Amino acid sequence: MAKTLYLCYFGVREPLVQTQVIPYLVEIKKSGVEVSLLTFEPDLKETWTREQIAEQIAELAAQGIDWHYLAYHKWPSVPATLYDIFRGTLFVIRFIREYEPDILHGRVHLPTLMAVIARKFSRRKPKILFDIRGFFPEEYTDAGVWPEGGWLYRAAKRVERWLLKESDGFVVLTERAREILFPESIESGLDKRGRPVEVIPCCVDLKNFEKVDEESRSETREKLGIQDRYVIAYVGSFGGWYMTDEMLDLFSAAREHNPRSFAMILTQRGKKGVAEQLRKRGFSDSDFLVDSVNPAEIPKYLSAADVSISFIKACYSKQSSSPTKIAEYLACGLPIIANRGVGDLDALIENHRVGALIEDFNPSSYLTAIADVRTLENIREHCRETAVSEFDLQGVGGPRYRLLYNEILNKEDERQSQ
Questions:
Q1: How many CB atoms lie within 10 A of CB 10?
Q2: Residue 178 and residue 229 in one domain
Q3: Which of 6, 32, 348, 391 is the most exposed place for a label (fewest CB within 10 A)?
């Protein structure tokens, strides 16, 4: 039986790990692969007791995942990260020697760097799967974290080139990212050196959305007191490459045009600041909801909405972006209002007719987009069908990961039959 070690530079409790790592590992395991997971836990001694660690190990073991962990260090930033890379690399070297994995699966750059270095210093040479996902160096410059062209960016790009050279297979989130990094793989699925490349967008487990129907929608709308409101929803963060002012301006334009419009914002951070910004724009507390909810509750809340929004800076790095919120919106039957230039979102909305794209950030464009969405027929059912065809974990994400594992492990595969 093949074995894999999945390296993730996040803590196991992070929502991203719960929704975008563990479910995928369960899917990978379906092909008969033994799965181990390494995470880096922030404030390990302060946030974990021995009993909680034992419970987490047992919980993941019940799903067929062998969990390992190291402490995450945050400050000072660069030395702390280098220290984590060093400790992660030592762990992987020991893991290779003891467990003899066939694949080291790195989620983005830093974990893949640990895997590549560890393989260099190991007698056994497992395959490396570089789960690139986003354009990591460009994301940091586009978000203003690193200065453009600075030494950190240059160092990260140098490391990236090395990882691309050393890896045995790749995952990207969008067709646009494939076109940029591996254009030769569009037809064949292989890069110039015959290594497999797979496009796997951020998927969701549609089983979590099965209870999203008209009954749950009515119940939630009644509970929130928004039965007669036109509800515009947003899920996610603000700031950085997320266009806070523009999204709040859309809420304002909608409310000025239709006083029955209601803003539903589900975010984990900065709730008070967002609420205050809405009040400054003339919203009363009865005109909006700004709250943090458990990921398991997101379908219930979104089921009460009528339309969703996603405004992200159309910068270079976002061509590789596949926001999880898009899959969540569609799974809840919500059409999407978005700006152009983000991942494959343009093609998704235009080809599947599941929303509207805005050309300019102004009240006229916002109101036109809302009006266009309201003319779409049978839209809730159509959005759910699109979620099934494009973002289903078990129908799209899982099979593509299993296909990629088979190719990396040199198993017989009928790619042409897919």
A1: 19
A2: no
A3: 32
